[in-house]
Design a protein that fits this description.
Layout: H1 9-36, H2 38-50, H3 52-59, E1 67-69, H4 75-91, H5 93-104, H6 116-152, E2 158-160, H7 161-178, H8 181-190, H9 196-201, H10 203-217, H11 223-246
Parallel strand pairs: 1-2
Helix pairs in contact: 1-4, 1-5, 2-4, 4-7, 5-6, 6-7, 6-11, 8-11, 10-11
Length: 253
């Protein structure tokens, strides 16, 4: 059993405040490092969109090239800050997850507290894997759909950098968080909150929810991009069922 003494609400809030401060300090430090590589990071984040120019011109020589534009005096500066902040969040994700673990650890049993390292390691891996899946598979398909729509109305695509990066950042973070499902399931199963049988019972509802989430999160309304989102989510849910079965909380004897 946990040997921690129950803390009042104010103590929990104070603990949460310090955990948030430490996480923000880690993001801030990573932000400052990322600022030195801002141009490289900007090129990396705009690659899924600008790389369409070559492929679109091959299929349609008269197609207008995709252009990123700025319409505000300080838009370039704030765009650079946004890029560095996003990079800071991803770079500091192990620290963020560790601070989250340290906040919830006092409520766990002693034999459950040694999961800190697996939680941070696998949490980081799945978070980055979700973002990578979005960057390399979902975004190119979605942006191709949107850019090709400009051709149907004979308009050259000129997209504001602030809007593009805001949308891209939301997509990367959404996929990163979504891919945490197996990690979350592991701890819920260890705490006895969910079981494999319960997750199997609600499988049909999970499939429906996954389809709805795919329709909301994917950038394009086409079936291909939605399947790119729904397919991995379904695999993650089935994987989570297996995790819940293997790591279920032992029954009391």
């Amino acid at each position: 059993m946990s040997v921690d003494v129950k803390m009042p609400l104010t103590a929990h809030l104070e603990e949460l405040r310090w955990r948030l401060i430490r996480a923000l300090l880690a993001v801030g430090l990573a932000f400052m490092v990322a600022y030195y590589f801002a141009e490289i990071l900007f090129g990396f984040l705009t690659e899924p969109l600008l790389s369409l120019n070559a492929s679109l011109s091959q299929g349609n020589p008269g197609a207008g090239a995709v252009q990123l534009i700025g319409t505000g005096v300080a838009e370039a500066f704030f765009t650079k800050l946004k890029v560095c902040f996003l990079a800071g969040v991803f770079a500091a994700s192990p620290v963020i997850l560790y601070q989250l673990w340290q906040f919830i650890a006092p409520g766990l049993y002693d034999n459950e507290k040694h999961y800190a390292q697996p939680f941070v390691f696998f949490g980081t891996i799945f978070f980055l894997a979700g973002a990578a899946f979005c960057y390399y598979l979902v975004l190119p398909v979605g942006y191709r759909f949107f850019v090709e729509e400009y051709g149907t109305i004979r308009v050259d695509p000129q997209i504001r950098i602030s809007e593009y990066l805001t949308f891209t950042a939301r997509m990367l973070l959404a996929f990163g968080v979504t891919f945490e499902l197996p990690v979350i399931t592991f701890f819920l199963a260890r705490l006895g909150i969910v079981t494999a049988a319960l997750m199997l019972h609600y499988l049909r509802y999970a499939v429906l929810l996954i389809v709805v989430m795919a329709a909301m999160l994917t950038p394009g309304p086409d079936i291909a991009s939605q399947m790119l989102m729904a397919g991995p989510l379904l695999v993650l849910y089935l994987l989570s069922i297996g995790i819940a079965y293997l790591f279920a909380k032992p029954r009391a004897t």
